Predict the structure.
Amino acid sequence: MANRIKTIDITDALPDIDDFCDIPNARISGEIFHRQDIYEQELEKIFARCWLFVGHESQFKKAGDYITTTMGEDDVIIVRQKNGSHKAFINACPHRGNKVCFSESGNARGFICNYHGWSFNIEGNLIGQHESGIYESSQFDASKWGLREVAQIDSYKGLIFATFDAQAPSLEEYLGPMTWYLDALFDNQEGGTEFVGGCIRSTMDCNWKIAAENFVGDILHAGWTHDSAARAMLGGAVSKVSDFEESYSVNWNGHGYEFALDTVGNVAVLGESALNKYLHTIKPSVIDRLGEFRANMIGSVSSCTIFPNFSFLPGQNTVRIWQPRGPNKIELFTWVVVNKTAPEDIKEKWRKGAMITFSPTGVFEMDDGENWEYCTKTARGRVTSQQDLFVGLGMDTYLEETDLPANVYSGQLNEANSRAFYQYWGDLLKSPSWDAMPNNNKGKAKAGPKASQISDKTDGIGEK
Amino acid sequence: MFYKSSDHLTPVSVEEYHRISTLLAKEYRILDEERFSDWLDLLHPEIHYWMPGIENRRRENPLEYGFFDSKHMAYFDDAIRDIKRRVSRFSQPSAWAENPGTRNVHIVAGIEAFYGEEAGEYCVYSTFQNIRSRGLDEEYIFSGRRYDTWSLVDGVLKLKKRLILMPNATLTCKNINTFI
Amino acid sequence: MKRVFLCNVSELSVNTVRKVDNAEHGDIAVYNLSGQYYATADLCSHATASLAEGDIEDDLIVCPVHWGTFHIPTGEARDFPCEINIRTYKVEQEGDDLFALIADKAEDPSLIAKG
């Protein structure tokens, strides 16, 4: 049979976490983007423990369909089973450790190691080897030497997550009320979403947290960083975020979603009026499904990161993982997500539109990459890396009285989500176990009765 | 790259080969000189400019064209409007990542030219290498193969189709901020 | 020549294979290919594997372990890593019963299934 992974030992926490991650005082240090010892702690205490995005159910149509990806720096195979469920295995043979699947996707009867012909079926069971006789005469117990299966795998609305940690809370508990907001993109129509075929992979010489934090709650950069791209795609400047009457930053367990309620602000930068029209066309049905509040989010100026490294942009419909590859490097996997029920020509426009904006050739991503690389590179300086970096915007914007779920802050020009991201990150680095994690969530774990209709016009909350 | 080109085409005359090969060299010179509007002049209004993403697949699970697929994600899958938008972004004063500018050298080699299926069309195959440098020390090099269709419009050759294939399933740098 | 009971026709639906234990001659795989019955040795000639656990693709049986194939009607090894042919047996139907006819010695030594 497949064999569960052996849980790794948790080493002592670094002694100086409060020095480089001091969220009560709204400051961090650049060394978190550079230090090798911090990075090694991240692999152990974050990537080996948290739920990580590994694939979308639409990438698997029949039994034996698989993709290969990584969880942190660990290679894994995700494969659909005969009963429609998914399993995730470490992509390494338990004999000498060679990779057993080299292809990024496909369909297979199983996985055969190139080295000694150990053969595993899609359930991960070791079912034979080349020169099988020698194993039989060595009293070899094949049942102990299957592929190593991750501790937990689960999905939410098509998004498959896995964790190496048997002690990790359930995916439901881990995502918490963020699922209420995820539905705005991943469940706004019957049937949910699917990924367009393919996956674009590229590298950036930046720390993974800079990218993840950019999507968790930094719309502030967009108007300045992306001015050239917005002008190219729209023929004019991007809408000024501070002009939005109502916008929010919400977070939970280090995840964060910042958004306006303008329905089409993000999709508009693809420069395809048919896509704006599509969102306006489906909006009444989204109101029926999710209520008016979230119907305003389907393609609005917004972004999200699910801690630690899974991010997306509603509207542009780009979905990505920032795979850590050392303190100074990421591998970026990007996909395009579309509503399953969208007309083919709409899906096609999203495929192209997402790529021309957010991909290595995307006019928006080019300016991001440049910023993120140099945020990382300056941290090489021993002195520079010890200086404070400011994350203090919107310190007094927490909304006590709201029916919206999660920790809710008014305004998306706000570093509340970035602070929550780094707070959770620092807490994980300190905590020897999940039980030791402090609970910094103070908002509602479930949406209140008025959440679906809520707006500043009806109950007076909001930044203005 | 497992894309199979046709071997049944007729090679062009020496004069036409000279005309086409010098045009490809000129195209790369004007790209290196950031003369984007001159480069746009070389493009056919109905151009399909396509650089698909390369996927690392097993031989028994090929995509539509082995390692790539016309319905999958692509670096470029552009019509003329899309290309003009990219050029427009390069040309904005707020294109921060282009100031200081990127310094490019494009190299074309292995040019083969054939008469196309339609009168006035040419199938042109070539290999390329692009070397970019940015900042003080950044350098990115990538190579690949191109399958072009050039078409005569009022006696002038215009690029009507270009398929760009690089061998890499992972682009080992942050972007492709140039045309190939 | 021995006549060995395999299974009932009703137990072998179209395009399936099942294993019949046989200590004396080696286990036998019996196949129903579109209503035509065949029998071969069940043990793969490459490495330890029961062919009856493999998939049928057209008239080939795919070994479940290393995905080599054998031609079901003739026992011929077709795809890597299978290179040694497997033994085949003539199948006789009598009412609902299927029997394999097993020669005392295989006519062709290369068709003797390993083990």
